[in-house]
């Protein structure tokens, strides 16, 4: 088995977990940087999947299963840029798929994707299924990367029908070690929100992510099919207002232009990725159906959306500032004029 993206905590966890399965003989772990965490007995190969050398790595590994986890919305390290991240997501996937196409040994491909491919729009359906087309395709950021990645994967599946291809569309991944734009947003001392909107959000626990990846990487059990595209999320939804209350962090409702301005500010401070797609999610929300995950893939998450968020909250502890300081900060932000308006934004009760 060959696994990409192992320098990230999620990739490292999966590599350590999959080695405990008795039918996995060898794991070759690949990343452009050396991981800071242990990989057990896996053979680590330092290689950039954006380069053609990944074909040689796959050929030498002789792997029959490839698990592609190097599709993400969070740069690895302070020196990473959005451009490098997009290249890894898109160009890296193209190079890896090209290598898989040339390898006669590859029998199974598992790709980590995201429910971001559905976008977030005001006329979205209440629940997205795997076959529901988005009302508005993502225009940029990680969401657009995920759309492009899935397009290349579909092309590969047509060219290599002998390979079982499984695409897992994960909802927002949270947990004690979560490293994502939404986790960074929830870690802010004060949460900027869009005035007049209270979006529905879905989460999947990082423990469940590792387990469903393990399931998808194996031969299917009787009555299940480990190929196709599957939404992966915990049961239920939470409103953003419920999330803020459970975190104990105040919200600052802002008109949409001010939210965009606030997003630019927090990006400049390096605190969070407040891309346009992130703002759309915090405006319109998103929920997906998981029937196929249960009935076809045969996976039932251990954590619901609410339980996932509760575990995330426990790992974060109290806010970054004392409550009295937070209150003063909210009061100051509330009276700031909107950029170019000369008038303070209207506030709603938290």
Total strand segments: 13
C-alpha-based Rg, rounded: 21 Å
Mean pLDDT: 86
Helix content: 25-40%
Instruction: Using the alpha-carbon principal axes, give the shape.
Output: globular
- What is the rounded distance between the termini? 49 Å
Q: What portion of residues belong to β-strands?
A: 5-15%
Please summarize the sheet with the most strands: 7 strands, parallel
- Order of strands, main sheet, comes to 3-2-1-4-5-6-11
Low-confidence stretches: 320-327, 345-350
Helices and strands, in order, run as EHEEHEHEHEEHEEEHEEHEHHHHH
Provide a count of the helices. 12
- Sheet/helix structural class: alpha/beta
Question: Which descriptors would you attach to this protein?
Answer:
single chain, 350 residues, alpha/beta, seven-stranded parallel sheet, two-stranded parallel sheet, 13 strands
List the helices and strands and how they pair.
Layout: E1 2-4, H1 9-18, E2 28-31, E3 43-46, H2 53-61, E4 65-68, H3 82-102, E5 108-114, H4 141-159, E6 164-170, E7 172-174, H5 181-186, E8 191-194, E9 200-201, E10 203-205, H6 206-216, E11 228-232, E12 238-239, H7 240-247, E13 251-254, H8 256-268, H9 276-284, H10 291-295, H11 305-316, H12 323-334
Parallel strand pairs: 1-2, 1-4, 2-3, 4-5, 5-6, 6-11, 7-10, 8-13
Antiparallel strand pairs: 9-12
């Amino acid at each position: 088995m060959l696994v990409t993206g192992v320098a990230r905590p999620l990739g490292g966890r999966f590599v350590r977990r999959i080695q405990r399965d008795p039918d996995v003989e060898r794991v070759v772990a690949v990343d452009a940087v050396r991981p800071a965490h242990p990989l057990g007995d896996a053979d680590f190969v330092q290689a950039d999947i954006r380069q053609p050398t990944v074909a040689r790595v796959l050929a030498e590994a002789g792997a029959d299963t490839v698990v592609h986890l190097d599709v993400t919305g969070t740069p690895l390290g302070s020196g990473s840029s959005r451009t490098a991240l997009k290249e890894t997501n898109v160009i890296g996937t193209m190079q890896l798929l090209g290598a898989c196409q040339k390898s006669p040994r590859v029998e199974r491909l598992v790709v980590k994707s995201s429910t971001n491919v559905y976008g977030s729009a005001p006329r979205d359906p209440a629940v997205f299924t795997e076959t529901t087309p988005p009302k508005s395709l993502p225009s940029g950021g990680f969401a657009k990367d995920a759309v492009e990645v899935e397009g290349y994967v579909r092309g590969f599946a047509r060219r290599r029908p002998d390979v079982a291809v499984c695409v897992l569309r994960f909802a927002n991944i949270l947990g004690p070690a979560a490293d994502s734009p939404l986790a960074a947003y929830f870690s802010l001392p004060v949460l900027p929100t869009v005035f007049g909107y209270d979006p529905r959000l879905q989460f999947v626990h990082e423990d469940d992510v590792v387990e469903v990846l393990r399931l998808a990487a194996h031969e299917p059990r009787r009555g299940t099919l480990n190929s196709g595209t599957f939404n992966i999320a915990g049961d239920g939804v939470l409103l953003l207002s419920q999330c803020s209350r459970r975190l104990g962090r105040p919200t600052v409702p802002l008109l949409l232009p001010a939210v965009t301005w606030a997003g630019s500010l927090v990006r400049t401070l390096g605190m969070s990725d407040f891309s346009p797609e992130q703002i759309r999610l915090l405006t319109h929300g998103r929920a997906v159906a998981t029937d196929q995950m249960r009935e076809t893939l045969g996976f039932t998450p251990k954590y619901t959306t609410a339980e996932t968020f509760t575990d995330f909250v426990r790992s974060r502890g109290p806010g970054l500032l004392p409550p009295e300081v937070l209150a003063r900060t909210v009061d100051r932000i509330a009276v700031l004029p909107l950029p170019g308006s000369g008038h303070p934004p209207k506030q709603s009760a938290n």
